[in-house]
Amino acid sequence: NQTNSIFEAIGGIPAVERLVEAFYVRVGKHPDLIPIFPEDLTETIHKQKLFLTQFFGGPPLYAEERGHPMLRRRHLPFKITPAHKDAWLNCMAHALIEAEIEEPYRSAIFEKLTLTANHMMNTPE
Ligand code: HEM
């Protein structure tokens, strides 16, 4: 499913890389997010590039390397509150602009990620 996908439309791997890199620069500076992410974000960046490639309808790179995403389960070791969710989405909103992901894809991606982020919350404020 690599045709007519968001992945293709935004420009494939280079666009995903720009987005993920811009995103984790912000995560690494966000006071609410620094405490729950690893200090070295290298592996996190790598996993997110694989995941978002697949999530946007590109090749299933994440599944090939790490298996079924089971994202909610993989996030259970971290206490993710509504404030963390808002911080995550705020970093993503800015990263989409910085990475020059154009409309209508920017909004389509943000809506998809908002649904997933809501699903990752596992701890009340
Ligand atoms: C991993 C936090 C939402 C995708 C992680 C990790 C943390 C985290 C602390 C561990 C870092 C690591 O394994 O290197 C959060 C917080 C979120 C959130 C606070 C707020 C709602 C999301 C969303 C997505 C996502 C919306 C996908 C669209 C991933 C992926 C991994 C990950 C793919 C790596 C999983 C693995 O293979 O180990 N996240 N996350 N996260 N997150 Fe999130």
From TrEMBL:
The keyword rRNA-binding does not apply. GO terms for molecular function: heme binding; metal ion binding; oxygen binding; oxygen carrier activity. Pfam families: Bac_globin. Its cofactor is heme. It comes from the Bacteria. Keywords: Heme, Iron, Metal-binding, Transport. InterPro entries: GlbO/GLB3-like, Globin-like_sf, Globin/Proto, Globin_bac-like_CS, Hemoglobin_trunc. The keyword Protease does not apply. Belongs to the truncated hemoglobin family. Group II subfamily. This is Globin.
